[in-house]
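Session log. Operator J.P. requested a structure for one protein chain; no other inputs attached. Running the standard single-chain path with token output.
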Amino acid sequence: MESAEQHIDCGEVMDIASMAEFRLQLVEALALKQAVALDASQIERADSSALQVLSAFMQDAHAQQQAVRWKAPSDVLCRSAALLGLVRILNLENNPYA
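Structure written below.
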């Protein structure tokens, strides 16, 4: 039986200081084997450590055939992903910065 979608709020600031707690949320979501919705609508700052954590999560989810979708990814997240060449890995191809 398929479970409900797991919702994860990315918050406003995604930096190295917030990544330990955020990574735990992602690991728990993978363990639940549910589809995941990442609410990235409020992100105002995302550094490379955050994008590395998100990239690893997306790759793990893909390997486990676990669905992940973005809920309104902010321009900041999309621009940061584009600058670091992570648009494809993060599945953000449908944004204006891809």
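Operator note: The domain at 6-83 is CATH 3.30.750.24 (Transcription Regulator spoIIAA).
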